[in-house]
Structures are given as C-alpha cells and as structure tokens.
Please model this.
Amino acid sequence: GAVVSQHPSWVICKSGTSVKIECRSLDFQATTMFWYRQFPKQSLMLMATSNEGSKATYEQGVEKDKFLINHASLTLSTLTVTSAHPEDSSFYICSGKQGDNEKLFFGSGTQLSVL
Amino acid sequence: AQKITQTQPGMFVQEKEAVTLDCTYDTSDPSYGLFWYKQPSSGEMIFLIYQGSYDQQNATEGRYSLNFQKARKSANLVISASQLGDSAMYFCAMRELYSSASKIIFGSGTRLSIRP
Model:
C-alpha cells in the first residue's frame, strides 16, 4: 500500500528555535497534503491543507506565519514550526491523497517537545 | 456544517469476541465519504475501511465491516473475532465530496482494549 514517510519521529528543541517536519510520499503522488496536530488523548485537529504548487489553506485559529507549510513537489511537503514555544509541543501528523482517490495515507507522526 | 460523533470514549472486549464501535455523523452534503482509522500507541494512523454515501453495499475489509445506516446517519465499525493487536484508538472520519480539496474531520475517538 501507499506509504508516507514522516521525519523526524520525535524532536526536542529549545524555545525560540524553528523545527522542520518532512513528509514524503514514497509510492504515490500526493497532490494534496493535510497537516494535523493531536494533543494527548484527543482527536486529530486539521491545521492546514496544501495542494502541490499552491499556498496552503489554514484552518481558523492556526497562525500561518508560525506554521509554514511548503508543498513544492508531488512527493514532499514540509511543516516548519517557527520560533517554537512550549505550547507548540504536540504530536504532528501529515496525510496525503492522490487526486480524487478518497483514501488518505498518514505519516507516522512527529512528537515535538519544546523546552 | 459537518460533524462526527463517537460516544464511546473507551471499551473493553474479551479476545475473540466481536465489537462494534459507534459513529454518527451530520452533513448537509448528499455526497460524502466515511472512514475508519486505527491509531496504535505508536501514533501512526492506519486506514481500515471506507464507505461512500452512494455505495449500495456496506463496506467490508477482512475482519472489519462498516454498518452503514444512511437514514440514521450512522457508520459503526464492526470488528469480528477481536485480537489482542486490535487494542488501539479508533477514529471515525468524514469528508464531504463536493470538492477534491474539502477537508476531512475526525471524531474524538474510541479507545479499544482487548482482554486476553
């Protein structure tokens, strides 16, 4: 089945630094990539939707200047958490879809801890 | 607005028994898709099953089946012959299909624990 490789799986950083999370679709072209965050024991909350070659569409309440999303190719999307703060500590997960195929393929997630 | 509701925060089931995880949804769009995902403790999300709103038959994938009752707006997941490895969080999700870029929303999840 289709695979989305997400790296890193966990990262610890100091407050004020930036962290980049990568998601690569290994055997399909991810025309659309979704980025989520998940707090402990809660559901996934959609942060933004990006289509290859276009600017990402952010959900209400998500700061686009803080969570930079790049989807420059059909196999790579990145989320950069800029000037991270402890409240940004969370589990971040991406998912990709190809064209009109309804299935979403998820990365394995990144646990971000900001000290 | 679309909405997904999972009313069971947690369930305990004896190994080898069948289990039903509840999911109800709300949408004004006649065309939508319903999904179930499994999230083990490792955090990754695993796709289990998909049901389209216009599909005539209930979806099945191995031990997973989706009990789709359109009039009741419910899409319960049935796992037959449960196994210890089925212990995980399970999320019901929905996407309205009016746009190829429409977002998918998730329910709050049900934590399933299988007892040996």
The mean pLDDT of chain A is 90. Residues 24 and 76 of chain A are 5 Å apart (CA to CA). The radius of gyration of chain A is 13 Å.
